[in-house]
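To whoever is covering the structure queue this week,

Two jobs came back overnight. Logging them here so there's a record in the thread.

Job A:
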Amino acid sequence: IDPFTFPALFARRAKAYFERHGGGPEDLGTIVEKAYANANRNPNAHMRSVKMSREEASTPSESNPCFLENPDLRDYLKVSDCSQISDGACCVILVSNDGLEYIGEEPGRAVEVIAHGVAAGPLGQVEDYTRLNVTSAAASLAYSSAGWDATDPDFAEVHDCFSISEALICEALGFCKEGEGIALAASGGTSIDGKIPVNTGGGLIAFGHPVGATGVKQAYEIFRQLNGECGDYQISDVPHRAISANIGGDDRTSVVTLYEKS
């Protein structure tokens, strides 16, 4: 086991992904570039003042090294592929319709949680390193519960603990076919005004990863986007539906949530 355990686990996924689908770790730079570009528009982002081009994200350097000790995995992960170690806090208030009246909040600003999907897998047993099977199962549960499919969400907040995880989650949620998650980002499909915007505030990679607050922060970001409150990183055509995917461990637990605002 590499001393950097979680980075090594996702480097292993990146290695398996490129061996199956082609390409190489430099292709992940397009996801990193998008994350930083979004964060540069977000005044609350951890990396709001840090610029990162695709070339910089794709190229190992003194400031962006491949840091894993395992020689089989070393080339598949750089510092820029990793989420931030952030301090942060977030809170949401879950209420019924009666609860909205009780707290004096206007119903028109509320966002409805339509469905949850929760799934888990055994520790240390990964069926296929090129797929997030647990997240896929959670997404299927959420979609079937709501009567939705992958075309219904207008945008997504996903757990991009590492750049490869964003691509894999996009595939698990059904936004593209297997092996096309990186290409979806490279085409602009996940940009703020793309086909399916993903992590509009910068995600874990550039907005930040305060760990325990991260999943709740996803819900809050969705609330803000659905209410048109994201300022410079607001989706121009204010959306009505959204999805979040938050994972634990190496896709050993996953929660997928669907949201809607009338």
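Job B:
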Amino acid sequence: MGIDWRYTVMGIDWRYTVMGFSVSQTIVAMALLSFSLALLAIAFPLHSVAAGEGLSIKLIHCDSPKSPLYDPSTTHFDRVIAAAHRAQE
């Protein structure tokens, strides 16, 4: 089963198939697959919130030692100056 091309331009009988499926069948199948994946991507986080586990996000300041942006070689004064510059932006 390869690719089958059939055209009749004036009679408007054209067909393009891939592996035995028409283009419209392929588009519908891809749309259903995309919709199903989007639905699952939304349903799983909502399920965890509804199950009582809740949704929690830890915010870490960029000057915190827990931050990947933290530079241990800077002094407290350097961090204060950097924070003042960020506040002005």
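Note for Job B: The chain has two domains: 1-55, 58-89.

Please reply-all if you pick these up so we don't duplicate work.
Q.
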